[in-house]
């Protein structure tokens, strides 16, 4: 049983941090809200569905039967166990449950062992000598113990990520009385998924004020800190570094209390936690426990990040590309993203609050990485630390703006370097120094000079035969040396925001290049890209009318993973189209096929060529894995046959824009989620393709500027049970015979100049509890928005009504407690208006505009 994610090899048992249900009078500050939340959930639990059918993502529903599973998640040292202890011993919890059990999961137990420990907890040790070793017999005993009892079981420090194993463990617990609960604490989100937890509490660091109170208790004890003003000032700075971790407060607080001198505290302030003497149960052992159970490749990925300064924001792709360049992980498929998600789920990384593609490390995790990689990784933040760099160093970053050139050249002594990151040395030109360094650092695989004052890249860069990753973005380099084309192992080349005047002609010899970041389309940098068969990143491929790039160059580029945008397709002849072999690009996510916009303006020319364009687009049938397709200025009359159901089984997004000869769309892939049809001026019918039974997962439909569209089956839209966004704009020919109906899932609705579909207002707004945004513009058939309908839109945050000439009444606005933005303009007949509309009706109330 890989209950703790062991490697499968027999290893000596290590000591583990055993916990108990007794809190031992812990210092608990700043957790009142979390304690009350957990107690409330235990006293009124919810039951999750079987985790085998979806785990933590399963739909939650209130229940008083079955066993509820709750999970407290957070990084090591954040106080999960302490919170569980306080809740476990809360008088309300003691009174509510007939039986309480606490189990701290040791290293590598199997289900049999855990079951036995649960029995011992349930019987207060009376069953310790039962001698039973058979799982079936133990489960019978446990079943009898919990039968007809409302119980609480705490599984502290859980690591099991296998839902099958968890279900085996809890099978006898299902005989407990309704309202029974299991409380799990863990560092891993995957544990919560495996247990099917119905409620999650993600525990973060303590608030600053509460944390300082806790820190003071560990440092000063019962002594009044007011007598040590200098220590208080230093202590607050140290406490701020610990980011609210209670375990860190205890570890560092004890270290400080051992020597109450300003000198000692200043040394601690200037050092990292890795330099402190850590006893058992200290912060680094607690965090190191998480590290121990990582696979070998993830350990490498994590400790590599020790070269980055604290607070550094990692770009997802940048970090993954460095891991690949160092050989830690394979470049195939999405393996890098999987690794990053794994580390994120275990709290080694945290999502940046403002970007889904950026990550940060908690300072304590950064300390852990540095403590684990002290002989291999070093982050130089001060030139005075140069003597501390070990001779064995392999990965080095220089994160200081100013470093004397003589000291910079000292880096040449570290000949084992595989990574050199110069981050932000913008004060002096490093060009000559790099020339000297490159003669000595022949083992470099990753080189980052981003933002440095470098005007010229030395020619001897071509001697760095092992170089796989080079980032010279935001430098002042104007010319790349021809020798860069000798870097046969180069995988990543980043020259974004570099004022290059020209590019070496031999760049196409870089056959291992996976990603090339340049300011202009890569086809304008290289004369022929057919050799770049490893290229993965987005590619804009422009086909000139005369000499230049040919579509056949795409033939062997099977590793493209992001977006392929092919432009000027009118310059492709049908015999060449098949040579692109679009169907072989299994990793490609998005495909954009675009013809010139100028030729579609000439109807005579377009009519003569539409047949050929239809043939050409048929030749571009993509791989079934494609997720997004956009056709722009396509002059064919039919849509491609490969768009029919069953062909592109992964297609989620389809956009047809400026396809002026398209008259109807007959079939769509059943996997489609988002459909955008824009400026198709001859389109007459979408009746056949918009079938609820074949598009069950569609969430977004946009139909815009289709002046001849007459058949839009709006009466079927209620059948699209997942539909969230609907936009119908500038489609004046839509008839009054079809009445719009909408599903309760709707979040955004925009109706503008939509023919007679606006006659469906306001009845189509019935039963839309999730509607957040409502935009009605130029809808002359709208007569009223009555209170009985408007008042039901309780989630509405924005309402825009503009140029509705027949609108006479609007009511129920004072019921919309979520409304933030209200705009009613250019409605000259509106006289019957909610008299309370200008009153504050909710905390979220914001800007309102009213004009007749």
From TrEMBL:
Residues 307-369 form the Disease resistance protein winged helix domain. It comes from the Eukaryota. Residues 64-223 form the NB-ARC domain. Keywords: Leucine-rich repeat, Plant defense, Repeat. GO terms for biological process: defense response. It holds the Pfam family NB-ARC. GO terms for molecular function: ADP binding. Residues 551-678 form the R13L1/DRL21-like LRR repeat region domain. This is NB-ARC domain-containing protein. The lineage of its organism: Eukaryota, Viridiplantae, Streptophyta, Embryophyta, Tracheophyta.
């Amino acid at each position: 049983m890989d209950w703790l994610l062991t490697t499968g090899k027999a290893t000596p048992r290590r000591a583990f941090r055993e916990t108990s249900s007794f809190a031992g009078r812990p210092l608990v500050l700043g957790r009142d809200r979390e304690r009350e939340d957990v107690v409330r959930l235990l006293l009124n639990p919810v039951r999750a569905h079987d985790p085998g059918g979806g785990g933590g993502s399963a739909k939650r529903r209130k229940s008083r039967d079955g066993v509820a599973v709750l999970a407290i998640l957070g990084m090591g040292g954040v106080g999960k166990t302490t919170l569980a202890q306080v809740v476990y011993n809360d008088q309300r919890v003691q009174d509510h449950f007939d039986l309480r059990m606490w189990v701290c999961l040791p290293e590598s137990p199997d289900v049999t062992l855990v079951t036995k420990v649960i029995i011992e907890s349930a019987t207060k040790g009376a069953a310790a000598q039962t001698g039973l070793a058979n799982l079936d017999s133990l489960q019978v005993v446990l079943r009898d113990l919990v039968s007809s009892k409302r119980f609480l079981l705490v599984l502290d420090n859980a690591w099991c990520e296998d839902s099958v194993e968890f279900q085996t463990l809890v099978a006898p617990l299902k005989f407990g009385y309704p309202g029974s609960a299991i409380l799990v604490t863990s560092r891993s989100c995957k544990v919560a998924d495996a247990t099917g937890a119905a409620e999650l509490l993600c525990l973060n660091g303590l608030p600053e004020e509460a944390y300082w109170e806790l820190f003071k208790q560990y440092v000063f004890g019962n002594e009044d800190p007011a007598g040590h003003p200098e220590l208080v000032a230093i202590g607050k700075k140290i406490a701020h570094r610990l980011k609210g971790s209670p375990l860190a407060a205890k570890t560092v607080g004890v270290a400080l209390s051992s020597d109450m001198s300003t000198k000692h505290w200043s040394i601690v302030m200037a050092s990292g936690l890795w330099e402190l003497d850590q006893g058992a149960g200290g912060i680094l052992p607690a965090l190191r426990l998480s590290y121990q159970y990582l696979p070998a490749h993830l350990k490498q990925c994590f400790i590599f990040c020790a070269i980055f300064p604290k607070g550094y924001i990692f770009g997802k792709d940048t970090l993954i590309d460095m891991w690949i360049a160092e050989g830690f992980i394979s470049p195939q498929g999405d393996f890098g993203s999987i690794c990053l998600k794994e580390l994120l789920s275990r709290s080694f990384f945290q999502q940046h609050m403002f970007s889904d593609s950026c990550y940060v490390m908690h300072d304590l995790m950064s300390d852990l990485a540095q403590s684990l990689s002290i002989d291999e990784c070093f982050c130089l933040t001060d030139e005075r630390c140069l003597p501390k760099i070990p001779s064995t160093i392999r990965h080095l970053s220089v994160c200081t703006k100013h470093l004397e050139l003589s000291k910079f050249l000292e880096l040449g002594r570290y000949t084992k370097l595989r990574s050199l990151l110069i981050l932000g040395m913008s004060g002096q030109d490093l060009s000559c120094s790099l020339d000297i360094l490159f003669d000595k650092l022949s083992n470099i695989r990753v080189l980052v000079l981003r933002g440095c004052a470098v005007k010229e890249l030395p020619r001897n860069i071509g001697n760095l035969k092992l170089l796989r990753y080079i980032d010279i973005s935001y430098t002042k380099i104007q010319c790349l040396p021809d020798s860069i084309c000798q870097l046969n192992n180069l995988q990543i080349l980043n020259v974004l925001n570099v004022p290059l005047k020209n590019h070496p002609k031999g760049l196409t010899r870089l056959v291992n290049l996976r990603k090339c970041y340049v300011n202009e389309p890569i086809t304008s940098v290289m004369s022929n890209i057919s050799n770049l068969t490893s290229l993965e990143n987005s590619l804009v491929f422009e086909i000139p009318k005369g000499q230049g790039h040919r579509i056949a160059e795409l033939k062997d580029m099977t590793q493209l993973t992001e977006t392929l945008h092919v432009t000027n397709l009118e310059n492709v002849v049908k015999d060449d189209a098949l040579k692109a072999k679009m169907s072989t690009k299994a990793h490609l996510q998005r495909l954009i096929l675009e013809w010139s916009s100028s030729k579609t303006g000439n109807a005579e020319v377009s009519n003569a060529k539409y047949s050929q364009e239809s043939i050409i687009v048929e030749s571009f049938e993509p791989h079934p894995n494609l997720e997004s397709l956009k056709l722009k200025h396509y002059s064919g009359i039919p849509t491609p046959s490969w768009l029919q159901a069953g062909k592109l089984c992964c297609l989620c997004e389809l956009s047809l824009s400026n396809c002026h000869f398209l008259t109807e769309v007959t079939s769509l892939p059943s996997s489609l989620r988002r459909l955008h049809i824009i400026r198709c001026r001859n389109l007459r019918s979408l009746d056949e393709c918009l079938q609820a039974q074949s598009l069950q997962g569609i969430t977004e439909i946009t139909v815009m500027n289709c002046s001849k569209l007459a058949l839009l089956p709006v009466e079927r839209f209620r059948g699209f049970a997942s539909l969230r966004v609907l936009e119908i704009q500038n489609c004046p020919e839509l008839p009054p015979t079809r009445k719009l109906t909408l599903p309760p899932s709707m979040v955004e609705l925009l109706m503008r100049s939509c023919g007679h579909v606006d006659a469906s207002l306001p009845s189509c707004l019935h039963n839309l509890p999730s509607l957040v945004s409502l935009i009605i513009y130029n809808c002359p058939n709208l007569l009223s928005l009555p209170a009985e309908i408007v008042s039901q839109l309780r989630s509405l945050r924005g309402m825009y009504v503009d140029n509705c000439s027949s609108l006479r009444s609007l009511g129920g606005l004072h019921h919309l407690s979520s409304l933030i933005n209200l705009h009613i303009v250019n409605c000259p007949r509106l006289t019957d208006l909610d008299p309370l509309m200008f009153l504050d009706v909710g905390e979220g109330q914001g800007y309102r505009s009213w004009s007749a």
